[in-house]
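Protocol step 4 of 5: obtain the predicted structure for the target chain.
Materials: sequence only (see below). No template structures provided, no constraints applied. The aim of this step is simply to have a reference model before the mutagenesis design in step 5. Sequence pasted as it appears in the construct record:
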Amino acid sequence: KLFKLLLFVCEMIVNALGGVGVGGKRMLVLLQQRSMFSGIASVSSSLVGSAYCQSWTTPLSSLPLRTFHVSKSLHVEEEPSDNILEVNLETPKVKSNFKVSEDVPPVAFTPIYHTEPVDHLLALRAARAYSINDETLRASFKVSMKDKSKKKGRPRDPIRGMVILPHLFKKPLRVIVFAQGENVKRALNAGATAAGLFELLEQVIEGEIEFDVALATPEVMRDVKSAARVLRQKTPSQKNGTLVDNVEEGVARFTRGMLYRSDPHGNISLPFAKASQDLSTIEENFLRLVENVVDQNLGQRDAFIEQLFVSSDQSHGGSFPVVVKPTLSVINEKFHKDDEE
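Step 4 output (structure tokens):
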């Protein structure tokens, strides 16, 4: 039944395409039919060429078995044959005037090496050694997004955090603080560019001071709103986190802190040092960054970071995988030893 259905469909296609053509072009569909009792049938490929034939109106099952040889000009020549169907199609060679110069070297494929996870000090040294200039060293995390409080199969919300590294590796932001009383001294001691209220507002309105971030305490927000047209996007607000109660923490967060957020798959990428810094400085920043990310876990501390890589931005050395558990043990010895005692 399937074979008869195939014959019927082929007949309809050939009858539909047989009478359509421009300049004598036709579509030639060859079907080699074997014995119906053996149940074996084969359909040859379709050839489009300048075949000088008439439209087929007879059923395909009644056609005799024939052999067609196709020359380079795609002219179809028919020869009698017993049970063989051969199509010899040779692709003509394309002539081109393009020649490769002898000075051009052959293509060299860059080998890709698989590196096993190494100690964090070795990875930091390698990333620093492969740097071309004073590049930024970067740490890439793949963390677990499992959350027991969520329903089965649903990941946790994106991870958001802020880290303050012990050593600066980039230019800090210029922060001004609108405050009164003791908060002014605290802000200046924390590293604020300027602090005050009315005098600072006059400087901002007249454009006498340059700054990147403006912080304010809740009790002075009524006076700060008078300069909202000048501050615009830098106006302190609770949504942006620039309306602070603890002035010292807010100044440290915006001058030296780095905000990060993971994607839905748990990938986090953060810079932590420059290649020109000392190895001890780079290590302290790296360990502090890893500790801050680990504190975002909701389950086992050792299994939270699934993968950890260290790389430099412009080097050709690639990323160096770091073993996680030994790194966490080093963090516990350096940062949490005093807390346990």
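Step 4 remarks: Residues 147 and 270 are 23 Å apart (CA to CA). The chain has a mean pLDDT of 75.
Proceed to step 5.
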